Amino acid sequence: MFKRTKVTDGTATGQVGFRKKSKVPGVMITQYIEKLPEGKSHPDFTRKPIALTIQEGKFAFFKAIVTGDPKPTVVWSRNNGDVSDPARYQSKYDPNSNEHTFEMPHVKPDQADTYKCFAKNEYGQAMVTVVLNVIEVGFKMTKAPQQQAEVANCNFKKVLKRRSKVVPKAEEPEKKEGEIDPKFWELLMSADKKDYERICAEFGVTDFRWMLKKLNEMKREREEEQAEFVKNLSDLKPIHINADGTASFELEFDLLDPSSSIYLYKDGEMIPYTKELGDKMKHCLRKVGRKYIFSMRDLMPEDAGFYQLDVEDVNMFSTDFKMVDFLVKIQEVKAMEREDAVFECVISAPLSKLMWFGKNMPLEQGDKYDIEVSEDKLIHRLVVKDCMVVDKGIYAACAGIKSCNAWLVVEADKGAPKGKKSARKTTRAGGSGTDLQKVAQEQQQKLDKEREERKEKIKAAREAAAEAAAAEEPEKTADSGAGKDKGAAVEVERIDKTSVAATTTVAGDSGSGHSAGKASGGAKQDGSHADAGGGHSAGKASGGARKDGSIADAGGGHSAGKASGGAKQDGSHADAGGGHSAGKASGGAKQDGSPADAGGGHSAGKASGGAKQDGSHADAGGHSAGKASGGAKQDGSHADAGGHSAGKASGGAKQDGSHADAGGGHSAGKASGGAKQDGSHADAGGGHSAGKASGGAKQDGSHADAGGGHSAGKASGGAKQDGSPADAGGGHSAEEASGGSRQDGSLADAGGGHSAGKASGGAKQDGSLADAGGEPGITSGLSDILATRGQPAELTVKMNTDCDGAWFKDGEPLKSGGGISITKDANIHKLTIHSCRDTDSGLLRFVSGDLSTEGRITVGDVPEFDEDDLHKFSKPVIVRVGQNAAFKMPFQPQESLTVSWFKDGTELKDGGGVKIVREPNHSRLLLRDCLRSDTGEIKIQLKNPFGAVEATSQLIVLDRPGPPEGPVETVETTSSVIEIKWNPPKDDGGSAVTNYIIERQERGHSLWTKLGDVSAEKTSFRDRNVTHGKKYSYRIYAENPQGLSDSLETADSIMAGIMILSGPPGKPKVVSTSKTCINLTWTPPEDDKGVPIIGYQVEKRKKDTNQWLALNAINEPIEDVNYAVKDVTEGAEYEFRVSAINESGAGDASPPSAMACAKNPNMRPCFKDPEDFLVVRAGNSVRVKISYEAEPPPHITWLKDDEPIAPWINVINTEGMSQLVIPSSKRSDSAIYTIKAKNSVGEAFFDVEVRVTDEPKCPGPVELEQTVYGKVAVSWVPSPDQELDDRLYYVVSQHDSNTRMWKTVADRLFANTYTAHNILPGIEYHFRVYAKNDMGLSDPSQSPTWGANSNRVPISSNGVSSMEISFERPPSILVPLKVHTPPKGYQLYMTCAVRGCPTPNVSWYLNNTCINSDKNYYITNSCGVCSMYILRVRENDGGEYRVVAVNSLGKAECSTKLTVRD
Fold it and tell me: Would you call 438 exposed, middle or buried from its count of C-beta atoms within 10 A (0-12, 13-18, 19+)?
């Protein structure tokens, strides 16, 4: 029965508590008074304890931080139990961190409960609850009978509680042929309907109608069970692998009881998880709203399995986590630009979708990528469409924790026209290079075969079940002992239930148990009964195990006694006597079948029968908490011991079969019989009043008797070798008498010492006596020592004389016994602890007279690791380069424990890429961004003052292999074969090299071609596809599962066959010369030696020098037979020669050409593409550039209208060009400018007309006159610039009230009149006249209105008043300005729409400056559409543009920003 902890409430009688809300969810606060005093507060939690699921035997703890003024007290309790046991529950407080800790070392399953934490002060209390779940480990003997009893009472629910419906593999019974796996039904109940067919095919179920019928029945049952704990169960998502490398599944539901426990199972075994500390445990269950998300990190192959989530004992969701492997991995793809690239792979099991990555980014189906999956879901493809150079990189396919990757190499299309994009190609590059369909078919056939086998087994099982149903059902019954409970043993096969069928062939009966007692029947192999006697008052009785079917009975145990029957192999009885009053009696083990009985033990005594091999009796009887043991014999004779009143008596060991009896020991005395070899007696006299008597050891069979010791005295018989007696006299009143040691057999006696007197006999070789005297002193005293628990410890004190002394522990005297031996050898005193315990710790003191010395002994344990944890830690941790490696080692919490981590013998410190976390019960090591060089031994060391323990593991960092070792050796080269050889890489990257890939490049080409690959065992390659005389370069890659290594490339090109050089070409001829270039031509060689010529090499030699300089490299041959030599110095003389180049190299040089001088030939001046007309705005500078050619350089002269130019006009002459510059032009600078170039050969002239002008002024007033009907003559006063600019003309625009638009009706008018046609009556007309020249338009001259209705007859209203309608309105912006970002130098249009009546006046602003009059901006306003045009955008045109419309009724504005791009 659990004892419920009572925590008293802080409110007084009649006092009302006020509920308050905490900032921390889940905290209940009760405030005792309505209004708190100033500065005071009720308790509250700033950190509440976290729910914990932990394995049995581990260190469990809760932490909480509370606040409040005055400082609250913290009390812990549990719902179903007591927390007062300090060995199981410990409450601690850390004043530095203000943390309250509730610890449970070595947590046990019965401690699983809901715990409460109360924080109280005088103003209120705060309370929070937290759940502790404990996962049981292994099989518990105490639970087996209980579960059997529950099964007998048909209480299966309790038996299966906390267990998955899917039995763990270790406990799974042998499955019958054709039986359906329970996982099948669990998966169906959690799956979507679209997945039913796939699951049935996987488990070999073909009868879908039967399956759906059974499934519906099971679903109804399951939903009824689920309704007891949850509601609104929905959104079940099966387990899947995320992009961050974790796996997770999700579901949504509402708990009816928030305190209900949630359990997770993997393959039927419960797994621990955390709810909030996701970085500290592998499994995590998070709650987000109604959604529960289970996630798993650091995935390994062993993580594959069947996962289930239960609430209490009802399953909510099941999902299967499978690991697949790559049968064919993706291969490297080389694609041309604008070509599609294909990556293909084949996996071992059907999977609907793989995770594809490109350059570490996840890829999805879209315009750029096509992700294809075959119908059988085994072949997966990634198509990279329209490859560009930027698509180059590493692409990977991931299926769970398995992945493969390969390079995509994109080569530029050299055939594409420069500056233009090449056409899209319809071809595809890449692929695996193997028959994927064949591999997939073979794998599919393998999977189909497995399904068919399962189908056949299921079919056979169903037929067998039908036959068995028709037959009569056998009945077997078995009766139990006292309780008459019946157990059934019937083989049942149920394929429509989720639990595994249990098979029992033999009845097992248990005796009745009274008053919480236990009785268990032993297991047998022949089918016979194994009965256990009744156990009363918490007693236990068990029957022994046998192989022959005979009975093994255990006597009844009364009053918490225990009786067990010994184990036998021949079928005879092994009976244990009854144990009374917490006594224990056990029967010894025998091999011949005779009885082995243990006498009854009374009053907490213990009696055990000795072990025998011949079948004779070994009886022991113990009374009054005494202990009696029978000695071991080999001849079958008796070995009896009797012990009374807590005394101890033991029978000595013999080899001849005679008796070895120990006398009775009274009043905590001890008597022991000596050991003999001849079979005679070795008796020890009785010891009274805590005395000790021991018989001496002999070799001749004579007696060695020790007299009785009284009043804590000690008497010992001396040791002899001749068989004569060695007697020690009685010692009285704490005196000591010792017999001296001799070698001749004579007597060495010590007289009796009285009243704490002391007498000692000295040691001699002749048997005489040696007496000791002098002043005593301590020459070697005690010191503090550390002792290991369970190991012996020895403390020694050395005196300068032979004198007595006494030992004390923590002030209490010590004597021999209870695991402690006190000895004295002459002047050396020793205290020996045979097996140290915690109670042995303390202050030890040795006193001899007035002298004393002391030292402290501390007992402790050397740190140790759990074997399971040590086994897990020893497994190597394998990561890829760049990933993090984590190590975790649990241990038992200890004080003064130092934890150190080492890598290859070097201690690791926290910092940088190393993270070390130290918790009370474990330590973790995290190595970030691992490199290949981090591979090595990882060791953790636990050290305390008692010793140290270490555990080692291995870190393996996988990477691409290093490049193969060079240099590349040429084994053979012929006209048809080149064979090369290399060495394996020094570093294989942690994984064995699987193969080598060889690529080749022909000399003069940039493309590398893959030739093939060879296995890792072969480090040579023969290239048979070579052309005689051509040179080739090779590079070799090593490949392992992580990818390709860097390449090993040949140092020089390798020629196929021997070198054949071409003959000399013809003598070069000089075609033309100039000061910058000399043009050559030559003829091909007459003898090319049968090898095609790929080009030529040209060399030059300067006059008066002997060095020939090559103008082009051999690998950059000149393909034509002419060449322009531009690397010349003006006036220098050169001669040239040419060599023909073939695959073997450059051949013999041609004869040198004639000397050629680098200078231009004499020529008459001529001008190159000059412009003959130039218009410049007045005020701007005028630049007239004229290029020419002449040899020798000519004399340049400029004229203006055939007159010399003014001195302010600048002329700049450079080689081949002359410029005329007028810094600030005026209209008077308009003229015809003539350039004259003259040298010794001749002269040349050229005229350029320069017109300096400005925007014209507007024409004068405009007059209108009608000459005939339908025609109006428009005349105007000429513009003032008409006389100054002969290129000025006029433009006339017309506007009528019908169309309300301005249109140009006349252009390029050089007169001052214009006749407008089609002038209709009743329509108003307006005309505008512009002056225009090369600079642009002038402002318009507006005409008066033509056709106004001034002569219209007014219409009278006949006395009826009419309401005037006003169309006036303030301005408004209909369409605002838009943001523009034009490039520099581009044109720009900016528009908006404005409305208002009367028509508003529109102004444009740039950065709050009006630009209406700025000539750089062309601004118009047509019917409310306001436009602004910039011909070429400049940098200073950027900024904020604003349009403001104003009329008499109001104002409106809008703005935008213009950003000029470079």
Answer: exposed
